[in-house]
Amino acid sequence: MAQQVRPRRSVLYMPGSNARALDKARSLxxxxxxxxxxxxxxxxxxxxxxEQVCAAVQAGGYGNRELIIRINGLDTPWGLDDIAAAASAKxxxxxxxxxxxAEQVHQAVALMERNNVPSGTTLWCMMETPKGILHAEAIxxxxxxxxxxxxxxxDLVKDLNARHTPLRLPVAASLSLCLLAARxxxxxxxxxxxxxxxxxxxxxxxxxxxxxxxFDGKTLIHPKQVEPCNxxxxxxxxxxxxAYKIIAAFEAARAEGKGVVLVDGKLIENLHVEQxxxxxxxxxxxxxx
Length: 289
Prior knowledge:
By secondary structure, this protein is α/β, with parallel strands linked by helices. Helices cover 47% and strands 16% of the residues. Helix 11 packs across helix 12.
């Protein structure tokens, strides 16, 4: 298949201070886990959370799940120790909260390199403030280390003095700006959380909206959200079958020297083939999990 795609349909926040939750996460069907040292951890539990999260990552047992450590901001009393400890733990990524400038990215990357973070460990950036949204392009372009933008819609709604609504119109512009920045620089991007755990229909609608926007997946706050989120962001059987049909037709036409490709009476161009290859690669990666 043309390109390697990593499934990030569901990425679940797990409080770093809860050892039982860190252990339970080894059996959850989430594509990724954000082991949190920031918002989900009280100040007097920060050191314990750091120790437990790093020990859990080093112990392993999480299978193919992507492991991300969300550190505290580098301007807090815990940030520098967090990034040093995360460097030793060697997660797949380190998530930096409340990123607002390219300079913050440069500082984090310099600290990662100073602490000998492996080359495969990327930096993820939380996009959750008005200033951060306005600087989305500069942030996305700041370093080759960046692997993903993560929408923090809860903080963003608060800072905007807005409201959480079913259609999420108050954050529509922010979602679009960050999507443009991510795609312009070849980054993954994850949608924000859905806070109402009793609103199953609303949660599904939010997942479907995120898929329509173009997000790779959604961040989650509870294990019950994982499977329905996976179902929305996974390609359907019909979509996968059509993708393979497009690829086969294109390759057959190319082998025969034909310049025009038709599938079910519709003209197929290179952009359709690229989309088909990506979708097929995603389906294969999900199947291999």
